[in-house]
Each structure stands twice: as C-alpha cells, then as structure tokens.
Specification:
With 209 residues, the chain is an alpha/beta fold. Helices cover 35% and strands 19% of the residues. The chain has helices at residues 2-6, 31-48, 70-87, 101-106, 111-117, 163-168, 184-197, and strands at residues 13-16, 23-26, 52-56, 92-98, 122-126, 148-152, 155-157, 178-180, 201-204. Strand 3 (52-56), helix 3 and strand 4 form a beta-alpha-beta unit. The longest helix is centred in the first third of the chain and has 18 residues, at 31-48.
C-alpha cells in the first residue's frame, strides 16, 4: 500500500517515447521503487533460500529518467546494493552488467566502487544480447578485489548460403544477419581472450547452448 501510494499518478515510471512500442519501466530514482525491489528480493530469498542470487543489470536496463545525473544514479544503486547485502546475509550476491563503461554508468553501475566496497561477490561483464569480445572495464580484471567473469553468448553472422539450411532456420536469405550459437572454436577463443585480459573465468549466457 505504501509503495502504491507513493507511486500514484505515474510518479515512479520512466517512459521512452519516439518508437512504435514506447517502453515504460520503474524509476529507480523513486525510493518507493527501491523499497519494492528490495521487498521482492527478501521474499524470494526467504521462500527459495538460494545460496547465490544474481541481479541482471544487463538486458537493456532503463532504471532512470534522462534528467538524473550519472553520479546520482551510481550513488543510488550503490546505496541500494548495500541495503540488499544487509537484507540477505549469507547469500552470495552476483551482478550481470553491461560490457561498455558508458552503458553501465547510465544504469547506475560504478564497477570500480562496487568491487572496492565489496557490494557484490562477483560480476559478469556482458553485452545485453550478443557476445562482446572486447568488453571495457574501469579496473584491470586481474587486479579486481572481486572476480570478474567474461561472458560468451551468441553472435551474428551472414545467412548461410545453403538453401536447405536457410529453410530449416525459417530464413529467406534476404536477412542482413542471423544469430549464431557458440561453437567449440568460439568458446576456446573466448577463454583465450578472458585469460589474456586477466578475467577470473568464463560465464555462459543461455543462448549459446
């Protein structure tokens, strides 16, 4: 009831206009939204008793309106993560965050401070949908106080030339690109890139299987 009252008249919403399908999401700048999300996490942990909880800040996060300064966003998310830590003692907390520094900052993620303050037990660096073989980090992965993982998932490529293969995928051949699942070679390449950068290990997102 408290959250509903504080969010009356759309005060807790972020709207992205200018497209055929405008996005409407909850605004993390509103204290009521942060309380609501914390309540959801506490209820989940109480019911499921997981050993690890991973929060996904990667799939096109739209947590703040454009008017909210980056420094304020990062302070808000950092303080909220501290509250999460206090609320679920004994649960390993992980984050999945975007692979570009500017994109992380827009979502309120300050990876350097999160690692320094131990606001998470690990972080996965990843693109929202496709594999990013050259992720950006504010800190050298090998020097990070918490493990940083390099994520491998699907890639894009040209449509196959074989007509029967095209038809089996439901394609026509006119597509600009197609999604490609990971191959053994791609996983080995990912492992080598992760090792050279000093990442703790590989993380695998669902669509590479």
């Amino acid at each position: 009831e408290e959250v509903a009252r504080d969010c009356a008249a759309g005060a807790c919403l972020v709207r992205t206009e200018g497209s055929k399908c405008p996005e409407v999401t909850l605004n993390f700048r509103a204290a009521a939204v942060r309380r609501y999300k914390l309540m959801q996490i506490e209820d989940l942990v109480t019911a499921a008793k997981p050993k690890t909880l991973e929060l996904d800040f990667d799939r096109w996060p739209q947590l703040f309106d454009e008017a909210t300064p980056i420094a304020e966003r990062q302070a808000i998310v950092g303080d909220w993560l501290r509250q999460v830590r206090r609320s679920i003692p004994g649960v390993r907390l992980g984050l999945r965050v975007e692979s570009r520094i500017a994109h992380r900052a827009a979502a309120g993620i300050d990876l350097r401070e999160i690692a320094r303050a131990g606001l998470a037990d690990y972080a996965i660096i990843a693109m929202p949908y496709f594999w990013d073989p050259q992720p950006e980090t504010e800190i050298e992965p090998a020097a990070s106080p918490i493990p940083l993982y390099f994520e491998v998932t699907q890639e894009t490529g040209a449509p196959p030339a074989d007509k029967k293969l095209l038809e089996s995928f439901g394609l026509t051949g006119s597509e600009r690109y197609v999604e490609q699942l990971s191959t053994a070679r791609r996983l080995v390449t990912g492992a080598n890139l992760a090792w050279r950068r000093g990442f703790y290990g590989l993380a695998m997102f669902n669509m590479q299987y």
